[in-house]
Fold:
Amino acid sequence: MTYPSNFKNVAFSVADFLPSPKREWQKIHSIVGDSVRVPRASKEWFYQVYDKIIGSEKLGKTERIRLKGLMLETLYQDYRYREADELALDLLDRPLNVWQAAYVIAEFFCQTRRYDEAEDAMSVGRTLAADNKDAIRTFDDLLAKHEKRRAAADAEKKGEYLPNPKEGKAEAIEKYREFMSSIGIDVDISSTKSSGGGRYPEPIPKGEYPELIETRDPSFDSFVAFDLETTGIHPATDSIIEIGAVRVVNGEIRESEEFIFREFVKPFKRSVTDFVTELTGITREDVKDARQMWEVVPDFMEFVGDDVLVGFNSVNFDGQFIQRAGRYSNQIYTNRHFDVWRYAKELKEIIGYTGEDFKLGTVGEFLGIKNPEAHRALADAITTARIFLKLKELSAGQTSVLCDGGVLDLEDW
Structure:
């Protein structure tokens, strides 16, 4: 047992006496140790074992996160970027408790030119590895590489990441280019420069952008009802993929072409997952050639004008996406937002609603309002408008508990 490699070999063999999934986990651990990577010779075996055990409840949370981190690294090293992206988002949806997972997320984001996200992951990883000098050195090396690539992006010079395998280089680069295009970052591989790969408008810093303004007073009859479809549920990191809106004038929903807005949006730094396609019907092909959010949202807000924006759960969700797009558009939007989700909850006793589910479809169904195309932005916007007008009708003559609250304190939402 003088050499650590001998001990790993023994541990690998002894693992055969353990029940599954501990057997497979111990074998993987014997191979990788504290590393962030699965050796090339073990990749095919790892793919098979991973699929077999990752769903097992007999594995602890730490073991599952460790396994997912190893799989993330394996996927993007094999140029399976879309699968890697979905796994990275899955990891970010749960508390990270192992530095290796944070490291591979940071490396993946650095390789795919999402430098702010890479820095966030590195910060988490360095905190987790604070007492591990070897791990900190690993992060230092990644940070140096990250800073070099970011400097190349800022100067619009050659130096950002491109795949460079010994074999199949052209195919690997094309897979990279296609994935990057799907997340809204165009990479021109024919140029000596990065040609704007990762280039986008310098956004207004988040802390300098005005907070969303909510009105709780429903005494208006003209407004714009809107809805967004997105790549996920996190306004700070997910992306708009469709905007739909309808104008309501003096309580009448105008559905003719000049009174509606609908457009696909090219996702920025996120891809359209199979789950999103299943939910909305929107495919990667639909948004591939769409305009970016900082191009579409200014046109949408021009359509809105000074009207109140009425949405369903829009203060915590849709409105936050609009604010983010405003930052990247370098335009400040001060329209008031009215949230029908909250309005329905506050009127539930008046309208006789006893359910606990306040989803758009559920509330609409209770009020006798059908949505012919749920989870599509324009159809959801029209449904939102109908729900709002119906709630106003049912609550006519009642003293409203709502008030014009100005800037909303989201912590007290």
